[in-house]
Amino acid sequence: MAEASSAVAFQFYVADDGIHYECSPKVLYIIARMFFKGTGKRFARIKNKIRSGTFPSSPLHFVLFETLLMIYYIFHPGLIWPIDTVMSYIDIAYRFLPWYANLNWLLQTFYITLPLAITFWFLYALLLHYCLRVLLTHISWVFEDPKRPTLKTKIWAICLKILCGYSTELLYSYQRALPKLPVPNLNSTISKYLDSVRPLLSDEEYKEIEDLSKDFLKNEGHRLQRFLTLRSWITQNYITEWWEDYVYLASGRKPTNPNENTSPYPGIMINSNYYILGLVFDKGPRRQASKAASLSHLFLEWKNKLENENVGPIKTPNKLVPLCMTQYKRIFGTTRIPKKGQDYLMQTTGRKSGHIIVYREGKFYKVDGYYRGKMVSAKQLEKTMEEILSDTTPASDAEKHLASFTALDRDEWADFREKYATTGANKRYMDMIDTAAFFLVLDTETKHYGNLPDEYYGEETLQYKQTYDNDRPYFSEYCKSLLTGNGSNRWFDKSITLIVFANGSTGMNLEHSFADAPVLGHLYEVVSIVETDYLVSAKSKKRVVYKNFMLKSDGKRYTPDGYLSGNGNVTSGKYERMEWKFNEEAARKIEIQNEIAVQAADSVTMKAGYFPHFGRETIKQCNCSPDAFLQMSMQLACYKSTGKFSLTYESAMTRLFRDGRTETVRPVTAESCKFVKTMLQDPIDVVEAHEALQCAMKVHVQKAKEATTGQGIDRHLFALFVVSKGKNIDSPFLSKVIVEPWKLSTSQTPTNQSGVDQTNFPECSTGGGGFGPVTRHGYGVSYIFTSGLICLHVSSFKDSPYTDAVKFYDEIVEAMVQIKNICSEAIALQKESAEKPAELTQQNGNGHLTKAPKLSKKFRYMSYNDSIAEPRVQSFSY
């Protein structure tokens, strides 16, 4: 209403007795308030830019320079003639100002020294910034043992701590100091690529790709490398923009040359989007309206803090090295807009994105998050959600299934929007969705984790134990609903689709092009812990909590009966029901699309569950990297399932560099293949298998570190391919490499990003997240480690005769048990040899010393159903 009122804020008219005017004090107040608020925001943005631009220096350093210069000017003038000369000229310049002569001597001294203080502070900030950039280019610490760092790394860490340890950090304080992603050496990349595919190809196939690589290096390779190097000099990150445009935003369309590996359903619902689960032990309310209102309010708080940059940067586990925070810019108010050929991202900030869209049983509502410039309370949002839930007016089939267009082919969605949503009320409603902070679904179904393993419950979590039907895969159904819904009750274009089920369980469906899973996982972990008041319990137990937790919790969010705390007589916030207008032709197209979306949603098989027998700490006790352990388990399971090795994708984070996103780790190596074949022997040689495992994991960890530090394979080859297309340079080698299908796509979900120790607080653990299969005959596997458990998410297409998510899940679990037993037996043998050296010799019947019998080191495979705590093998001999 403020905009309409401002039109009549001033009125004037001319009469015989002169000019008359009227003004509205109320409207003038609104205009003045808007002006000062806007000025305040602009000032805050300028202040943040100055603070981030001068980091790691701080305004305190300016005060110090100003104080020292004033002391020098007053007590010791003439010692440093350049400074005295500059001050004299400044004094002469000030004398031309009429107000200067009326100031007392102290203020005159302040003004004379002010320009020099600003200059010295600016130069000092540049020096510190340069030192910070130099320190952050030191990457070799990644390859060192964190428990035994080199002297060089210790000195580096001390310098970095001194330089930044006493400065206030904002969201983007480190952005300008982060190093650029390096372009790897071309010969090294080709060599690594050939090593990675050698176990996957026959001799003839390998000879073909090797010859192509030689021709590539001999002809166009180095020319393309020079173009790419030049691009790296003039851009912040040579790959990120191309990766976002051509891998994400150009995807989701019907392929021009489909093959047996092509996904059966184009679109982003299965092939791009992913999901994240809520807390496993959620002590929050089971009331859907209260839960939705509480989370929505916290999301809006986070949105404000991100826009004001009042969120500290995430750092590596050593709490020293900052990660790139660029992806946080687009968490809220971002929508993927369909466009023929390639989509684009649209972001809306500030109050223009201060509303949310609520979807309930086919009806869309716009809910304002602000009223008169202030955020509405969580209690008001709760009242609004209750009114929406009680709305019994029916929705038309067209509006009920409209969201199915966001799930499938992007070009068809672009055509529909262009024809039916660019005019009238439909355009207005579509703009509301595009500019909303996020999308909220009040689902009619009930979802939960189901029966958790008994090993999961401790004293603090036993209260959450419930009994459900063991024959029903509740957890898998929960994950499947978050990923696809029914095909038409998720708005897959929005950066965040928050889903609250009828029983209060929650989760998110997330668009992938704007940010990667760790960013949204951090958001949801923090919000979920605060929303359930676990932060308060952590503080009350005097545990270490992340110092910059971003959101506050007072432990009084809910009343005992599950309602949000606050005035019970509060009125609801402002909301509006959208009334879409579609003609028969548009409605018919929506129904056709919905039928396909239902089929697409039903085409995915999802298996999710907790592996209860051991977790991260047990794996570490076996001297194994948890990630490498699980990757080797998947390789063993995959070979047992298919009888061959499959090209495997694992994502690695490259946020040590500016605008970094991900790189690919290729877990299939000659060492991993040797380990798998060793595990297929009957009987298994324990020592040989354990040595092969350690070698394979060592190589895997090394390759993961190389990917993290910008020395991977696939992003480099992809960038060279883009250059070849842009320069019209034909490259048979790159054309063959770029279309290789990833049969097994894997990713690890990070934990403890909130800083709350989930070992001491298992209530704060989540079930991780997952995604769909990336090829018709492939798997999508995601996993998350907790101290005592491993959570697995496996997906595949139902119609594929080569894949079965449920079976593959069991095979991974079986492989983990088998590898764990190998490690346990090998460590036991090593300990026995170390503790009993005397047994290496023994007396024979004549009293002479001889060598003791050598251990056979062989045992037959222990089945998954056997006890883990007390390993029982079918055959073990000495």
From TrEMBL:
<dbReference type="GO" id="GO:0005739">
    <property type="term" value="C:mitochondrion"/>
</dbReference>
<keyword id="KW-0443">Lipid metabolism</keyword>
<dbReference type="GO" id="GO:0016020">
    <property type="term" value="C:membrane"/>
</dbReference>
<dbReference type="Pfam" id="PF00755">
    <property type="entry name" value="Carn_acyltransf"/>
</dbReference>
<dbReference type="Pfam" id="PF16484">
    <property type="entry name" value="CPT_N"/>
</dbReference>
<dbReference type="InterPro" id="IPR042231">
    <property type="entry name" value="Cho/carn_acyl_trans_2"/>
</dbReference>
<feature type="active site" description="Proton acceptor">
    <location>
        <position position="512"/>
    </location>
</feature>
<dbReference type="InterPro" id="IPR000542">
    <property type="entry name" value="Carn_acyl_trans"/>
</dbReference>
<protein>
    <submittedName>
        <fullName>Carnitine O-palmitoyltransferase 1, liver isoform-like isoform X2</fullName>
    </submittedName>
</protein>
<feature type="transmembrane region" description="Helical">
    <location>
        <begin position="96"/>
        <end position="114"/>
    </location>
</feature>
<feature type="domain" description="Carnitine O-palmitoyltransferase N-terminal">
    <location>
        <begin position="1"/>
        <end position="47"/>
    </location>
</feature>
<dbReference type="InterPro" id="IPR039551">
    <property type="entry name" value="Cho/carn_acyl_trans"/>
</dbReference>
<keyword id="KW-0808">Transferase</keyword>
<feature type="transmembrane region" description="Helical">
    <location>
        <begin position="58"/>
        <end position="75"/>
    </location>
</feature>
<keyword id="KW-0472">Membrane</keyword>
<dbReference type="GO" id="GO:0006631">
    <property type="term" value="P:fatty acid metabolic process"/>
</dbReference>
<feature type="domain" description="Choline/carnitine acyltransferase">
    <location>
        <begin position="181"/>
        <end position="813"/>
    </location>
</feature>
<dbReference type="InterPro" id="IPR023213">
    <property type="entry name" value="CAT-like_dom_sf"/>
</dbReference>
<keyword id="KW-1133">Transmembrane helix</keyword>
<keyword id="KW-0812">Transmembrane</keyword>
<keyword id="KW-0012">Acyltransferase</keyword>
<keyword id="KW-0276">Fatty acid metabolism</keyword>
<dbReference type="InterPro" id="IPR032476">
    <property type="entry name" value="CPT_N"/>
</dbReference>
<dbReference type="GO" id="GO:0009437">
    <property type="term" value="P:carnitine metabolic process"/>
</dbReference>
<comment type="similarity">
    <text>Belongs to the carnitine/choline acetyltransferase family.</text>
</comment>
<dbReference type="GO" id="GO:0004095">
    <property type="term" value="F:carnitine O-palmitoyltransferase activity"/>
</dbReference>
